[in-house]
Amino acid sequence: MIEIKISLVKNVLEANERIAAQNRQFFADKGVMAINMMSAPGAGKTTLIEDTIRSLKNELNIAVIEGDIQSTYDAEAISATGAQVVQINTGGACHLDANMINETLSQFDLNLVDLLIIENVGNLVCPAEFNLGEYCKVMLLSISEGDDKPLKYPVMFHEASVLLINKIDLLPYVDCSIEKIRQESLKINPDLTIFEISCKTRQGLNDWHDWLKALLLK
Ligand code: MG
Ligand code: ZN
Questions:
Q1: Ligand in nearest proximity to the CA of 140
Q2: 43 alpha carbon to ligand 2 midpoint, in Å?
Q3: pTM for the structure as a whole
Q4: Domain of 80?
Q5: DSSP calls for 94-131
């Protein structure tokens, strides 16, 4: 039984990898940089994406894929910025996979798009295991979630290229050590780039914008 299960999981991930490679080629052909944004529910992904689109609207053409189990709230919020957005409702699935992304690609006009932000389903576990064809993964962790998350969910910290520690304006009100998050994240992934941000006070957002703009030069 166990052997069958393991080989099934392996087949699913291999099939996903094949489609992710097609998506990656598609993005390369269109000259689009795609990033896969992951976090727990409520960490602030949508708010950050809205803010990023508005802040960089004169510099970057950004499109968004919104992944949610259900509802269109987040896609409507993104749409209000004027950016192209396609919603994926996973119908219960707790992560996006490469095939879901592949099926949205015909709904975009990506010719003028510089950056495609894929907002994954809020979940710290399996989104990290499914490549979508992205250039890199960006993880958001809000300090109200606690500083024990790197040890509890190491795969996501390992797969991410960037960790955005969000809601740092709440620091006086919560028991959370940013230093502990930094140290334990870097133990798991020494190459991780870390920014401390708050969409409320706008602290740290310039560094995030500079990082994105530098990405587009790659
Ligand atoms: Mg959201
Ligand atoms: Zn899942």
A1: 1
A2: 17
A3: 0.95
A4: 2-216
A5: SS--HHHHHHHGGG---TT-SEEEEE--S-SSGGGG--
